[in-house]
Amino acid sequence: MRAHSEIQLLRFIVAGAAAAGLYFLACLLLVQIGFGPFWGSLLAYGLAFLAGYGLQRGWTFQARHRHRDSLPRYLLLQLVCALLAAVLAELLVGEFHFSALTMAIATTGAVGLTSYLGSRCWVFPAVTR
């Protein structure tokens, strides 16, 4: 069972990195072809969100949950993670005077762990048969 969890965590990291890479490339391309930065970034984020959801659902967790159940949960989890990142970043820099690098490392780790556990336990929980 432990090997399965380690493989699942590795897949989670790879899928997240792929979604981040897609966001980066799509954002760059969309702005370069004429979209304004706001709309280009927003559209790129939407594409990366859908790709991330698809990869996490299908590859990382190999879930077969109905989209009407898992997609809203995934969206809510990602919104919570974004808020957590913002609050934690403000706290670490503003109150504890962390450097930007240390803050980025800490928030990335905290949000990644939160997203993984939330996805595993709530968005795509294992279905017992």
Describe this structure as you would to a colleague.
The protein is mainly α. The protein has 2 domains: 1-62; 66-129. It is built from 4 helices and no strands. The protein has helices spanning 2-32, 37-60, 67-95, 100-123. Helix 1 (2-32) packs antiparallel against helix 2. The protein is globular.
In short:
The chain is mostly helical.
- H/E element order: HHHH
Distance between the termini: 17 Å
| Count of helix runs | 4
Q: What is the average of the pLDDT values? A: 95
Search tags:
single chain; 129 residues; mainly alpha; 2 domains; 0% strand
Ordered list of secondary-structure elements with their pairings:
Blueprint: H1 2-32, H2 37-60, H3 67-95, H4 100-123
Helix pairs in contact: 1-2, 3-4
